[in-house]
Design brief:
477 residues, alpha/beta, Spore Coat Polysaccharide Biosynthesis Protein SpsA, Chain A, Jelly Rolls, six-stranded antiparallel β-sheet, five-stranded mixed beta barrel, 11 helices
């Protein structure tokens, strides 16, 4: 049992509308989009303190390294529920509710938060949470409604009704309405509607009861996935077979639009879901001409957003543009069309997949790699290995490799067979050759990141040319 609020942080989405910065392997919650800090880190900060239990985080299993890195940086312990695959928010919340009910009891109040929302007013947030949690303890599902500042067409709206008995700041929800057109949004604002923030408070028992009532298949699948989960310290890996049986549906559609327990409290804090590059521009600091820029040179340009993590960007004589560049991709769009980026990503995903040569960072449990150059017979990569981590013991059938350590110390295991493996220490400015078909692995036994430059020589450089013999992360076939 606990009388503290249990934060449940949902971090499963890919944030495709923030392409090319947000990707499946490093999605929106972990990007420093505004103010140099990720929204995931900001969410952790807001729910730390004496009124809160350690958070429960629901995340895709592929994002485990990102979650652990953020928790370590914040100095926060949390239970991490790893989804073997995304089944949308109904299944994620069902799994979290089953876990919280088991650990704290069904009366525990859960504060369900998206990991990718921007809230700057922590004091106002906590005050609103206290009101919502007190009401939720009596059985309602209390949604945080945000006072609209503009007739936005990218948010759902809430129509508040009469106050909940025994409260003055919490009101019944008369209706949830979908994203409107502009004229309808203007009418909603005149009628006192609120934006639906998608964050809410409810007890674990209420969550389980409403899920069983409206989407019993989701409730059963999530409960089975918890029962059969593998627990490693604070990490809970949901059972793949059981979790896959959960229908893919959002909590809003599955429960909130059907329940008679919905209530709303007007949020006493600023809020943005940072859903598009236009909303990131809205939340960013701007110069006197309305530009929010990173490394860029602007001439006679106004009202634009520019971000680059590598290439130098220049704009001349334009207005109200979004320009986002990385080493692999460039987005250019009118700011008012930023919500169409999701359609662009869908079109890009229909193109043939590139096996090698893209310049994005590809994050792995041990660190990341990034392709620097590729030709017909070679590829050059930068590989960064986290302290204490190591890659799988593996070999390649179509390429040899040459490694040069440029930062830290590498422990390299190499040999042509399992019974001939040798361990070598390779320091900065030293090299080691990995012949074709050689069994090998690299490890970082130090306390700082280790970086090496890998030159591959062969006729194929795809990541599927890996035969694993041992792996610390369960990737051996």
């Amino acid at each position: 049992m606990t009388d503290k609020i249990v934060p449940v942080i949902l971090s499963g989405g890919a944030g495709t509308r923030l392409w090319p910065a947000s990707t499946e392997m490093r999605p929106k919650p972990f990007l420093p989009l505004v103010g140099g800090k990720s929204t995931f880190a900001g969410t952790l900060t807001r729910v730390s303190g004496r009124d809160f239990s350690p958070p429960v985080i629901v995340a895709n299993k592929e994002h485990r390294p990102l979650v652990e890195e953020a928790l370590a940086a914040a100095g926060i312990e949390a239970t991490v529920l790893l989804e073997p695959e995304g089944r949308d928010t109904a299944a994620a919340i069902a799994a979290a509710a089953a876990w919280v009910a088991r650990e704290y009891g069904e009366h525990a109040v859960m504060l369900v938060l998206a990991a990718d929302h921007l809230i700057r007013n922590t004091e106002g947030f906590r005050a609103s949470v206290a009101v919502a949690a007190a009401a939720a303890a009596g059985g309602p599902i209390v949604v945080f409604g945000v006072e609209p500042s503009v007739p936005a067409t990218s948010y759902g709206y809430i129509r508040p009704g009469e106050p909940v008995a025994g409260t003055k700041d919490v009101r019944r929800v008369v209706a949830f309405v979908e994203k409107p057109d502009r004229s309808t949004a203007e009418h909603y604002i005149e009628s006192g509607y609120l934006w639906n923030s998608g964050n809410f408070a409810l007890t674990a028992g209420t969550a389980l009861a409403e899920l069983r009532r409206h989407v019993p298949e989701v409730a059963r699948a999530a409960a089975a996935a918890i029962d059969a989960a593998k627990v490693d310290g604070h990490t809970v890996s949901l059972d793949r077979e059981a979790f896959a049986r959960a229908p893919r549906i959002s909590f809003d559609h599955a429960v909130m639009e059907k329940t008679d327990r919905a209530a709303v409290v007007a949020a006493g804090f600023d809020w943005s879901d940072l859903g598009t590059w236009s909303s990131v521009w809205d939340a960013s600091e701007k110069d006197e001409t309305g530009n929010a820029v990173g490394e860029a040179v602007l001439v006679e340009t106004t009202g634009s957003f520019v971000a680059s993590d590598g290439p130098r960007v220049g704009l001349v004589g334009v207005e109200n543009l979004v320009v986002v560049a990385n080493n692999d991709s460039v987005l250019v769009a009118p700011r008012e069309r930023a919500d169409s980026v999701k359609e662009l990503v869908a079109a890009l995903n229909r193109l043939p997949e590139k096996n090698a040569g893209d310049r994005q960072r590809h994050y792995r449990p041990w660190g990341y790699y990034q392709s620097l150059d590729i030709g017909e017979t070679h590829q050059v990569k930068r590989i960064v290995v986290k302290p204490g981590a190591r890659l799988s013991l593996q070999r390649h059938r179509r390429r040899a490799e040459h490694w040069t350590v440029v930062q830290g110390v590498a422990e390299v295991t190499v040999g042509m067979s399992m019974d001939s493996l040798e361990v070598k220490t390779v320091r900065e400015n030293e090299t080691v050759h990995i012949p074709l078909h050689a069994i090998h692995r690299m490890a970082n036994r130090g306390e700082t990141p280790m970086t090496l430059i890998e030159v591959q020589y062969g006729d194929y450089f795809g990541e599927d040319d890996i035969e694993r013999f041992e792996d610390d992360y369960g990737r051996v076939a």
